[in-house]
Amino acid sequence: MRKRLGTIGFRLNEEHLKLIRTADRIHRFPAKMSPRLAYLFLAKISTKDQEANGKIRFCDPMCGSGTIALAARTLGFSSYAADIMYPAFIITSAKIHRLSSILLSDLGSASESIQVSEKRKPLWLWENWQIWHRQNVIRALQDIGKTIFEFRSRRFFPHLVTAFFQTIWDTSSADPGVIVPTRSGFSPCSPWLSSKRVLSVFRSRLQRVLEAQTALAALEISSGVPDVRQSNAIDEDSWPSSKFEIILTSPPYGCGIDYERAFRLQMRLWNHFVDRTQETNLQLLGRRTNLNMSHEVNLPNSEQDSKWFRRVRNGDPDRVRMFLQYLHDLRLFVLICSRRLSRYGRLGLVVGEPQIARTTVPLERIVTRFAEDAGLTLDEPPQYDMICTRIQNFRLRSASSPIGRECLLTFKS
Q1: Between 61 and 36, residue with greater pLDDT
Q2: Which of 5, 116, 166, 280 could form a disulfide with 143 if both were Cys (CB 3.0 to 4.6 A apart)?
Q3: 306 with 205, same domain?
Q4: Cα–Cα distance, 183 to 265 (Å, whole number)
Q5: How far apart are CA 168 and CA 348, in angstroms?
Q6: Is residue 302 in some structural domain?
Q7: Domain match, 8 and 78 both
Q8: Tens of pLDDT, residues 299-354
Q9: Is residue 270 domain-resident?
C-alpha cells in the first residue's frame, strides 16, 4: 500500500507551515526538500513518541539548506545538523539560529557599515570570470565580502554570508529560475550593474534574512545557538557521541545533481577570504571526485541480475563507477544511522529514483534492503510527494530525466 503525503492522519497547521516557509526562503538550493514533507513527518513523530524522556533528540547529518532542521527546531526538538559542504553549513546556521534582539540590532549596524568603492578594478580575478560578472561588479562584491569577513567572530556572521552568497548569484549572468548557477543562450552576457546597485541587491537579500528572523520569533524558537557542524556523514567518528530518537535526512539522489557545483560560483569569491581551496575534492556521494572503492557491486543480490542493472552496467564506465560508489557510500551511511539510533529510534530517508543510462534506478527498493541488512524494519508504508519544477539546467547534463517525486521511507530500530 502506498500513501500520498497529506493523508497520514495528522492535521496540518497551515499558519505554522506558512511561517516555516518564510524562514526557509533565505537562499536557493538544489533539490531542496519540501518544508511540508519535513514538518508532517516530524510533527507526527513528536505526537507519537511521548515515551521519550525530555526533548526528542533529532539529527540531520546531510542537512543541505537546513529545511528539515528548521522543522525540527519549530517542534522543540534538541536538534543537530551537519553537512560536508561549507555553504550548506553556513546557510543552515543562518536559517535555524534565531538571533536575540541585541544581535539583530548589531546585525543592522553591521549591514550599514558595509559600503562599496567606486573603483572598477577587481582586487583579484579567476578563470572565466568574464562570463559571470563585469569587473566593477566583481570589485563591489569583493568590497562587500571583505567587510563581512571582519565580522567572522560574531554570531550573525552566517546570516551576512548567506545574503552575500545569494547576491553573487543575483548579480551574475546565471540563468534566472535555475537552481544551480548556469549560463546559456537565455542570458548571453553578464548584466550591467552599478556598484551601488550591487550593494542594494545585497541589502534586499539581507532583508529576506531579517524577515526569516521575524518568522522564527513568531514560531517561538529559542535564541540559543543551535548545534550545526561541517562534517562528513559517512565518517562515524565525526558524529556526536549521543544517540538520537529521530534521524531524518535527504541523501543526494545519486548521479542526478552535482551539489558542489551549486556553490562553485559563490566560492570563487569567498574562498579568497576563508582559504577553503583544500575542499575541492570533498567526499560527496556519487560524484567523480570521490571514486575510491573497489569494483565490488554493492547491490542487493535480488537486484544484481535485474534487467535495469544490466542496462546500467553496460553504460558509460565513469557513470557506472559513480553509481557503484554511491551505493557503497549509501549502504555505509544507513549502517551508521542504525548504530546512532536510540533503542526506539526512527530513521527517515527521503529518496528520489534517478535515471542512469536512460534507466530508472529503483532506489526506494535498494535503500529498503540496505536498511533491513542493517537491522532496521520498515515502520509504515512509503509516503510520496510530487516534486515541483526544479530546473538545474536548460539542457539536461547530469541526468537523463528529472526526478518527478520524492519518497519518504521510515524505519525503526
Answers
A1: 61
A2: 116
A3: no
A4: 11
A5: 34
A6: yes
A7: yes
A8: 888 888 899 998 888 888 878 888 888 888 899 999 999 999 999 899 999 888 77
A9: no
* pLDDT at residue number 236: 94
Distance in Å from the first CA to the final CA of the chain:
22
Residue 156 lies in a domain: yes
Report the C-alpha gap between 325 and 333 in whole angstroms.
Answer: 12
Pairing relationship of beta strands 341-351 and 57-60 according to DSSP bridges: unpaired
Same domain for 357 and 382, yes or no, is yes
Closest CA to 324 of 316, 97, 384: 316
* Coarse DSSP helix, strand, coil percentages of the chain, rounded to the nearest 5 percent: 45, 10, 45
Grouping H, G, I as helix, E, B as strand and the rest as coil, residue 346 is: strand
Partners of 83 in beta bridges: 230
Determine the structural domain holding residue 119 and report its residue range.
Answer: 101-216
Q: How far apart are CA 134 and CA 122, in angstroms?
A: 10
**pLDDT band with cut points at 50, 70 and 90 for residue 206:** very high
- Counting the structural domains of the chain, the total is 2
Helices (H), 342-386: 363-373
Residue 277: pLDDT band (50, 70, 90) is: low
Same domain, 114 and 84: no
Q: Which CATH number covers residue 61?
A: 3.40.50.150
257 and 280, same structural domain? yes
- Contact assessment for residue 312 and residue 323, using Cβ atoms and an 8 Å cutoff: yes
The verdict on residue 269 lying in a domain is: no
**344 Cβ contact list (under 8 Å, min separation 6):** 49, 51, 52, 245, 412, 413
DSSP 3-state of 245: strand
Please name the residues in contact with 20: beta carbons below 8 A apart, sequence gap of 6 or more.
35, 39, 70, 71, 74, 215, 219
Q: Is the pTM of the predicted complex or chain greater than 0.85?
A: yes
The mean pLDDT value for 266-278 works out to: 81
Lowest model confidence (mean pLDDT) among 132-136, 147-151, 174-178, 351-355: 174-178
- Closest-CA residue to 256 (of 177, 323, 172, 339): 323
Task: Find out whether 268 and 260 touch, Cβ atoms under 8 Å.
Answer: no
Question: Do 138 and 190 share a domain, yes or no?
Answer: yes
Are the CB atoms for 247 and 239 separated by under 8 Å? no
